[in-house]
Specification:
Elements lengths: L3 E4 L3 E12 L12 E4 L5 E6 L1 E4 L18 E7 L5 H12 L5 E9 L5 E12 L12 E9 L6 E4 L5 E4 L6 E3 L21
Antiparallel strand pairs: 1-5, 2-3, 2-4, 2-7, 4-6, 6-9, 7-8, 8-9, 8-12, 10-11
């Protein structure tokens, strides 16, 4: 019997900027084709759903006493009355445009206390909205849904200030409070060059 996948309640982050990076045919992220969307005046929400397989405890004869974790889900939602519907539509299209291929998704947020937060989903696999139920916050609708695929290897990840993060193998979600402002709307400068903000 296959274990049942259990979805835990989602957590949300208000995103002021979202950058989508497609993967090229060689399986590497194509940073020169990344596109940034800014929502400084009316943030969108990133929802994160941690999933586990139940029952969590398996037979003692197994090598590990715990069942493997299921891939987590991520979703973007926006207020039903968002003041920039064209930008919301463009973000949804960017997240939906490449069926069957991975995307990487960077987000920039601020806490209620004003602390800057950065999150990276290194490998987002698009899912159809009718396949999984991820609740949106009140008065929001879900724009796009994805499954997080753990990274197959370690790699550097460029920051808008020209520096890099180091993303380890097996990363689902990379988080940092050591962040710089997000890049400007549109395509960034070629890899290795600083992007003006």
């Amino acid at each position: 019997m296959r274990p049942e996948i259990v979805s835990h309640p989602p957590s949300y982050a208000r995103c002021l900027a979202v950058r989508i990076t497609p993967y090229a045919g060689d399986g590497e992220p194509d940073h020169d084709q990344a596109v940034t969307y800014r929502f400084d005046d009316a943030p969108v929400m990133l929802g994160y759903v941690y999933r586990t397989r139940e029952p969590a405890i398996v037979a003692p004869a197994c090598r590990s006493p715990y069942a493997p974790a299921a891939n987590d889900l991520v979703a973007f939602s926006a207020p039903d009355n968002h003041p920039a519907p064209a930008a919301i539509s463009q973000l949804a299209q960017g997240l939906w445009q490449r069926r069957g291929t991975w995307l990487a998704v960077d987000t920039w947020s601020k806490t209620p206390g004003g602390e800057a937060l950065y999150a990276l989903v290194p490998q987002w696999k698009r899912l159809d909205l009718d396949k999984h139920a991820v609740p949106a916050p009140p008065d929001h609708h879900v724009l796009a849904l994805g499954e997080i695929v753990p990274t197959q290897g370690a790699r550097p990840w460029p920051r808008p200030d020209g520096d890099q993060y180091h993303v380890e193998r097996g990363t689902n979600l990379f988080l940092s409070t050591d962040t710089c402002p997000p890049p400007a709307t549109g395509f960034p400068a070629p890899t290795g060059q600083r992007t003006a903000v």
